[in-house]
Design goal:
Elements lengths: L4 E5 L2 H13 L4 E5 L11 E5 L7 H17 L4 E5 L12 H12 L4 E4 L7 E4 L2 E4 L2 E2 L18 H6 L5 E5 L1 H4 L3 H13 L2 E6 L4 H10 L5 E4 L7 H7 L18 E6 L4 H10 L5 E3 L8 H12 L9 E4 L4 H11 L1 H21 L2 E7 L1 H11 L3 E9 L2 E7 L3 E6 L8 H4 L5
Parallel strand pairs: 1-3, 1-4, 2-3, 4-11, 5-10, 5-11, 9-10, 12-14, 12-15, 13-14, 15-18
Antiparallel strand pairs: 2-16, 6-7, 7-8, 16-17, 17-18
Helix pairs in contact: 2-3, 6-7, 10-12, 11-12, 12-13
Length: 419
């Protein structure tokens, strides 16, 4: 099976989100954890999941280039650089510097940038990113503990991360379809723009953008803009028609959720779960020690694990508590504390018979997957937009890696009704 689309994702939940989109479009997809050291698995699309969103810029660029080399060596016909639908980054990167490096490697001078995901409320209008009805900088993302987003204008945000010029393909062009979108991007490229932020407020816009970028060496964005890519390969006669590309082995074992995300969506999901299943909310401010938090959680879980309903263990906290923890320990140390504790807790849960595990938060998911020694994920059925079940190899474990902002309020409950 030839590799058609080679993808690089800056975190593990985003990689799963992208793989889910491609599987829904009829492509087989495998998510590989970290830069591969051997041959890639056979699939229409391979997504290399990195933990590079908040890594130092040089490290993020080096990992992304190494992933790109692996994908090109396997024959990938197009490269996709996947980042968060809320454009999580700082003024130093990492979105712009990685995109710059990939463009240079691919010998291309232009790429689109479109993190829109209307199904989950992420839309772009006149270059401004909205989360639901709120501008990005008024959505709660301005309080993100690692990548606070204080500017909704993506032309400005990306412009601060690259020495290349950034333009805009506005709603009026995208609304006219793929041909008009393609022409608008060509005009920007001819004007010397390196990137185009592309407006999108509906799935139809995303399909048009994907079609317009069929010949691009590099596409950058959220998972939404990948919606149109499977059909491009189908039109070219490279992708056969398939039935169910999302089948997984039967689920078994106990059910659990570990949550490290502090997003509004995850906090709401924890709140609803309290009324229905056992929930432990860890207080890292009172107990700033990963080993102590792990012991507390694993002591608490004894006698509570079941196959018919999950337990929820959360280190999530509202913005004021996050700020207090960061003031006490420092930003990096506070993040490392939560990641280390949640990864150790997840390992302990699996050792106690958990075979179905939901992990909330991109950084937390990366830490958990690495701690469990997972090397690849087969993508299965979707639970909520952007969040599928996966089968973790070689552990034989079913995992759902949820971006903090994703999922309906009852996600932690209904996830275990799937599969």
């Amino acid at each position: 099976m030839p590799l058609l689309l080679g993808c690089i994702a800056d975190d593990f939940t985003g990689a799963t989100d992208l793989a889910n989109t491609l599987v829904k479009g009829g492509m087989t997809a495998v998510q590989v954890i970290g830069v591969p050291t051997g041959p890639l698995p056979e699939a229409d699309a391979v997504i290399i999941a990195l933990k590079s969103r908040t890594a130092p810029v040089g490290e993020a660029v080096a990992q992304s280039l190494a992933a790109c080399e692996a994908l090109l060596a396997a024959g990938a016909k197009q490269i996709f650089w996947k980042y968060c639908s809320t454009f999580d980054s700082t003024d130093q990167g990492n979105i712009g510097p990685v995109a710059d490096a990939l463009l240079k490697r691919l010998g291309s001078g232009f790429a689109l940038a479109c993190p829109a995901f209307p199904t989950n409320g992420r839309t772009i209008y006149l270059g401004h990113l909205f989360v639901g009805n709120a501008l990005l900088n008024e959505s709660g993302m301005e309080n993100h503990p690692l990548t606070p987003m204080t500017d909704a204008n993506l032309v400005r945000v990306l412009g601060r991360q690259t020495d290349g010029a950034v333009g805009l393909v506005p709603f009026t062009s995208v609304e006219q379809g793929a041909a008009a979108t393609r022409q608008a991007m060509m005009r920007l490229a001819e004007q010397g723009r390196r990137y185009a932020i592309v407006d999108a407020v509906t799935d139809q816009h995303l399909l048009a953008i994907g079609e317009a970028a069929a010949q691009h060496a590099l596409i950058t964005g959220g998972s939404g803009v990948a919606m149109g890519l499977p059909e491009n390969f189908r039109r070219a006669g490279l992708l056969p028609a398939r039935g169910d590309a999302a089948s997984l082995p039967p689920m078994q074992g106990m059910a659990a959720v570990v949550a490290g995300s502090c997003s509004r969506a995850t906090l709401g999901q924890i709140g609803l779960a309290r009324d229905h299943v056992p929930v432990l909310e860890l207080d890292a401010l009172a107990t700033p020690d990963a080993a102590a938090l792990t012991a507390q959680a694993l002591d608490w879980v004894e006698g509570k694990l079941a196959a018919d309903r999950p337990v929820v263990i959360a280190a999530s906290a509202p913005p004021e508590k996050v700020a207090a923890l960061q003031a006490k320990l420092g930003r990096d140390a506070a993040g490392a504390l939560i990641e280390t504790a949640m990864a150790a807790i997840a390992e302990g849960l699996v050792a106690r018979g958990v075979g179905r595990l939901v992990v909330a938060g991109g950084e937390t998911s990366g830490a958990v997957v690495q701690r469990l020694g997972v090397t690849a994920l087969r993508i299965g059925p979707e639970i909520d937009p952007g969040v599928p079940w996966t089968f973790a190899e070689p552990r034989g474990l079913h995992l759902a890696l949820k971006s903090g902002n994703f999922g309906a309020r009852d996600f932690f409950l209904k996830a275990f009704d799937h599969g």
